[in-house]
Amino acid sequence: MTHRNRILAALPPEELAVLEPVLERVDLVTRRVLCDSGKPIPAVCFPEDAVISSLSVMADGSAIETATIGNEGMTGLALFHGVDQTPEQSFVQVPGVGHLIAAEAFRDVLPRCPTLRAQLHLFSQALYSLVAQSSGCNRKHGVDQRCARWLLLVHDRVGRDRIELTQLFLSQMLGVRRATVTVAAGVLQKAGAIRYSRGRITVVDRALLEAASCECYAVIRSTFDRLMTGRSTPSPLAALRLSEDGMTLVGDGAPLSRSVR
User: Fold this and answer.
1) How many angstroms separate the CA atoms of 140 and 15, rounded?
2) Mutual orientation of helices 143-158 and 216-224 as an angle, nearest 10°?
3) What pLDDT digit, counting tens, does each position of 94-149 carry?
């Protein structure tokens, strides 16, 4: 079987032979919960073309997206680190296909799969970088740029131009009002980057969408390429001098002066 999930695709035949008997192919429908807040994680999931959102939940029941996981990774990552539940909820944001392994079966096969363990270590770091960069992005950049960044990350994962997604969902994921997303999507549509119809966004011109995004997409993309595929993709941060003589130049949060760039 050929896998679009990059972690599964990276495994040698002998490890795939260990996983195949416990690997269950499933159709992942929108809103399906894969890991619920404060409850035992029932299974890990390797998405093929679906996109999973990880939500931080507040005491009033509101929630905001803190990460997305697609064909580069695995949900239920806490199980890999020996943790059986987390405060976050993970659910299917964009529908597609995935492969499940029940929690007990995952714990059983993990010791016999060294390449899988190595891939999950790399993915853990890549996911941390995504969460960290997205956190900074949400604080520093405008909704138009964040919307473009989010759509680019989803476009990378699904492998198709048409994305089943409502503006209400997108507003929840970006932590803004629906009306704000409507304006942002309108700006991207007017620029010719996307086309929006009810419940569906189509990427029309990816280059224009990349131009509309902030640098955070390129930072995240270069990190995932380096860690998960071994490809060297330029990062916008590569040319910056961020420290001198072991001391930070960016610790106060202010932009670097031209003299130290």
Assistant:
1) 43
2) 30
3) 999 999 999 999 999 999 999 999 999 999 999 999 999 999 998 899 989 998 99
**Domain ranges, residue 35:** 6-137
Q: How do 247-248 and 200-203 pair as beta strands?
A: unpaired
Q: Is residue 220 part of a domain?
A: no
**Does residue 164 share a domain with residue 151?**
yes
Q: What is the C-alpha to C-alpha distance for residues 192 and 167, in angstroms, rounded to an integer?
A: 18
What are the backbone dihedrals phi and psi of residue 14, each rounded to the nearest 5 degrees, phi first?
Answer: -70, -30
Q: How far is CA 3 from CA 27, 49, 60, 65, in A?
A: 15, 10, 40, 27
- Across the range 4-22, mean pLDDT stands at 96
Number of domains in the chain: 2
pTM: 0.91
Query: What pLDDT is recorded for position 191?
Result: 93
Give domain status of residue 228, yes or no: no
